[in-house]
Structures are given as C-alpha cells and as structure tokens.
Design brief:
Arc Repressor Mutant, subunit A, 8 helices, 15% strand, Sufe protein. Chain: A, alpha+beta, three-stranded antiparallel β-sheet, two-stranded antiparallel sheet
C-alpha cells in the first residue's frame, strides 16, 4: 500500500519534484498571468490590422513566440500589442506582462520599448525560477524583432538594429549567441558552458574571450 505524499508547505500549485524535496516557486502574479493572460491574439483576429510583427524561437525549451503591434506612424507609440506563444507557463506569463507594460500610460514609444529589459519584466512578475529566466528574454527579443519590422515596413532602415551572431570558436563553430543561450540555461562557469557547447575543447586560445562573454551575460541577465 502506498501513501500519498503531502506537497511542500507553501508550494501548492507550484512545480515540485517527485520526491518533494525541490520546488519552483511561482508568484501569484505569474500564476495570474498564466491562467488569465492579457492581450492574447485570438483566432478570429485580423492580423492585417497590425503594422509590426515579431517572431522568435528558443532552442532552450522549444518555445516559439509571435507578437503583433499597432504603432502610430506619427508618434511611433505602441497603441496595441497582441501575442501568441507555444511554450511553457513562464513564457506565457512573461509575454502577458510585457504586453501590459508596453501599453501602459498611453503606450511606450518604440525607443522606450527597446529599453525594456528582461529584468524589468521579471520584477513586475515578482521573479521566475532561474531555469526559466530565458522565457522573459524570449518576449524581449520578439518585441525588438517587431520594432525592426516596423522600421523595415516604413523604410527607416537606419533605425533597425540587427543582432548578428559572431563565431567565437572557428573549430567548434560556437557563436556568442550559443554562449548566451548556455548562460541563460544556467551554465555560469566555463566548465559548464564547455559541457553544453564544446567551445574551446580543441581551440584553447579562444577561452579568454569565452570567459569574458560568460561574465558579460551573467551581469546582463542576473546582475
């Protein structure tokens, strides 16, 4: 006869391990935005009404995110923001909160929206489990992709910011983007990054650059 284990105190509704020794703590705000997502793009909506579209996918957890924006061409202020995501609860909550933030107080300008950081979204959510931090980065990148799309459609190519990857290790073909993703997934040391990417295994000369990138991304995303 088996006995049902009681959940960890204070974590009812959160994700816990089978042995009940570890739990991911989701705040009430995260849960609210997951169960009651704001500004979701409904099936019957006409996408042609929007003049900026962004799309991004994350190999970290298989999430894909699309956002649609209405931007006032005169003021470059976001007047509407809709989204769809095929991913985890953290991605849904993060994007829902981001949609609220960009439309508050009459809507952000595109310049203001570009300054929105994953940490800002995290703060409004009350935090996310560390292993789910990349979800807030996901909506941040989709937003910037939509901003570029608006400038592309309005022939303002000089305002577009292209985030190109550069190869750090020519032998393993590892890029700075690969290292960024590894850090977001929790690899905060050179050894852990090498385990995930194999960077520098046959080319130790690139390791100082790798270590510098690890420090940069740790500071950027985790403070």
């Amino acid at each position: 006869m088996t006995h049902k284990q009681e959940p960890i105190k204070g974590t009812a509704g959160d994700v816990a391990s089978h042995d009940q020794t570890k739990s991911w703590f989701y705040t009430d705000v995260v849960k609210d935005h997951f169960f009651n997502p704001r500004n979701f793009m409904h099936q019957d909506a006409d996408e042609r009404e929007y003049n900026a579209i962004g799309k991004v996918g994350s190999p970290a957890c298989g999430d894909e995110l699309r956002v649609w924006m209405k931007v006032d061409p005169t003021t470059e202020r976001i007047t509407d923001f809709r989204w769809k995501t095929f991913g985890c609860g953290s991605a849904i909550a993060s994007t829902s909160m981001a949609s609220v933030m960009v439309m508050e107080n009459g809507g952000m300008t595109l310049e203001e929206a570009r300054k929105l950081k994953p940490q800002d979204i995290m703060e409004r959510l009350g935090g996310l489990p560390q292993r789910k931090f990349h979800c807030s980065v996901l909506c941040d990148k989709a937003l910037r992709d939509a901003i570029n799309d608006f400038y592309r459609r309005t022939d303002q190519f000089d305002k577009m910011i292209v985030e190109a990857s550069r190869i750090i290790d020519p032998i393993s073909k590892v890029t700075d983007h690969d290292i960024e993703e590894a850090v977001l997934e929790g690899a905060h040391t050179l050894e852990l990054v090498q385990q995930k990417t194999k960077v520098g295994i046959g080319n130790p000369g690139c390791l100082p650059a790798v270590e510098e990138l690890i420090r940069f991304y740790k500071e950027k995303y985790f403070g």
